[in-house]
Amino acid sequence: MLNLKGEKVYLRALEPTDLDFLYKLENDTSVWEISGTLKPYSKKVLRLYLDNAHRDIYDVKQLRLCISDHQHNCIGLIDLFDFDPKHRRAGIGVVIVEPGDRNKGVGAEALSLLCDYAFSTLDLHQLYANILEDNEASIHLFQKMGFEEIGVKKEWIRTSQGFKNEIMFQKINSNES
């Protein structure tokens, strides 16, 4: 398997000990807008999720990894979702939980590690990301990591402030022969 370790962070599988972290993140209403969450998650439901987190990406069509610092603290999550092996593509998303951990290069490094894994190990042709138009930090991150804006879904996400546009970004595997 490809090395999922960088200078600042490494990516690892979710563990049962991540329950409290997952509970905090999934019940943080400030990220519900981007995750599509409509109601809180119980620890029981999240424990069941963790019990099945080992399942293969080809089976469940997604892969969620913990972004850990080198002191082994889980500081965020990064996902591949809507995995489509026939068309060799997947969506990708990243969240760094604490504002104090943001803008330090950890999201970029995690994204780089997972892109490398997706292109070299999973043999994907392309990755895409859907980002709300007002999420300037994520737009900047994905553009910096070589994702290109390919379209806008008008009034795509309903929020408490009304409908928001969602911008779609795409990265094609440049290392294919």
Written description of the protein model:
Keywords: Transferase. It comes from Flagellimonas lutimaris. This is N-acetyltransferase. This protein is an alpha+beta fold and 177 residues long. It has a single domain, classed as Aminopeptidase. The chain has six helices and seven strands; from the N terminus they run βααααβββαβαββ. Strands 1-2-3-4-5-7-6 form a seven-stranded mixed beta sheet. Strand 2 and strand 3 form a beta hairpin. The protein is globular, with a radius of gyration of 16 Å. 20% of the residues are buried. The model has no long low-confidence stretch (mean pLDDT 89).
Features:
Acyl_CoA_acyltransferase; 7 strands; Aminopeptidase; 7-stranded mixed sheet; 177 residues; globular; alpha+beta
Task: Briefly characterize the structure.
This is N-acetyltransferase. The protein is α+β, with helices and mostly antiparallel strands and 177 residues long.
CATH class: Alpha Beta
Q: What is the count of β-strands? A: 7
Domain count: the total is: 1
Beta-strand percent range: 25-35%
Described by strand count, sense and barrel closure, the largest sheet is: 7 strands, mixed
Using the 3D structure, state the CATH architecture.
Answer: 3-Layer(aba) Sandwich
Assign a percent range to the helix content: 25-40%
InterPro entries: Acyl_CoA_acyltransferase, GNAT_dom
Keywords: Transferase
GO molecular function: acyltransferase activity, transferring groups other than amino-acyl groups
Protein name: N-acetyltransferase
